[in-house]
Amino acid sequence: MKPKVLLPPFMSRYDKVIQMLDHVAHIEYIDKKKYREQLTDAEGMVGGRINEKVLQDALRLKVVARYGVGYDDCDVEAMTRHEVYLCHTPGVLSNSVADMVLALLLACNRKIVQADRYVRDGWEDRAPGRPTYGLDLKGKTLGIFGLGRIGLEVAKRCVKGFEMDLIYFDINHNRKAEKELGAKFMTLEEVMKKSDFISVNVALTSKTIGMIGEEQLRMMKKTAYIINTSRGPVIEQASLVKVLSEGAIAGACLDVFEKEPIQKNDPLLKLKNVVLSPHIGSATEEAREAMAICDAKNIVAVIKGEIPPLNVVPEQRGMIFKR
Ligand code: 8YV
What we know:
- By secondary structure, the chain is α/β, with parallel strands linked by helices.
- Helices cover 35% and strands 14% of the residues.
- It has twelve helices and twelve strands.
- It has helices spanning 15-24, 35-39, 52-57, 76-81, 94-109, 112-120, 149-162, 175-181, 188-194, 214-217, 237-246, 285-303; strands at residues 4-7, 26-29, 42-46, 63-65, 85-87, 141-145, 165-169, 184-185, 197-200, 225-228, 251-254, 274-276.
- The strands form two sheets. Strands 8-7-6-9-10-11-12 form a seven-stranded parallel sheet, sandwiched between helices. A five-stranded parallel sheet has the order 2-1-3-4-5.
- The longest helix has 19 residues, at 285-303.
- It is elongated and about 70 Å long.
- Bound molecules: 2-keto-D-gluconic acid (8YV).
- 2-keto-D-gluconic acid (8YV) is lined by residues 67-70, 93, 281-282.
């Protein structure tokens, strides 16, 4: 009998994925109500939110392929202890997330959301004037937190396309970006102080959770914007609401939140100087299909016993599990 693999129902639309998996596995689609039961005899799955409790029931599970690059919702330590591989989809979504950062940056800078509303509400003055003005991007400073795969794509677009200056903070230097894009490495505080636009592109870890709090936000220029497409908890949301309400910074663009979906009474929803989107950074046809294919490849690799499996998370690199 072929090993069982669990997939989210939306994956049925990707013929290539189904073909790849069909050769080696019996595919079953996840039914939220029966998910834990379905997991008891599954050897692979596409999904997330894996913790000790889930693993205790999933006795035959060999691999979880996360549909995305971030895997902060998976307990890697517990998965490693249970000898379950965790794979993800690095690279294939970097362009789409970077495009989204630019979409948000331009939207907030050029007041696109307010302008759209203004037109729909009757377009009173033919030339509405300063409230609709933004800033020229040429010569402005972009500050990036996390100059990895996604950060680098954001940087390329801003430096090569808009002729912006680039500063960044990361745990490692990105020498390629320093050489090719003139990126300047700075401390977190310096990036907060000097940037006209800040793009947050770090993974959520114990080191990055809350790394941008009230103190850091208050270092920003009054005219500066912050854009977050990584994970909500990297920025303390209550502090962000506070500085935005006071007008201490120009605005924020958020694709990610501390709680998703955002609560109906969240104070962010009342603010005018924010642009909000529902975690759609990687939501392009190309990226979403490539993520699905990447997941399928990862699962096939584990089922075939390939070592190391493709795209295993860095914490498990070089490990051989015998489940
Ligand atoms: C995905 C993401 O949309 O890659 C990630 O980590 O946050 C997004 O690209 C999300 O994981 C979809 O489940």
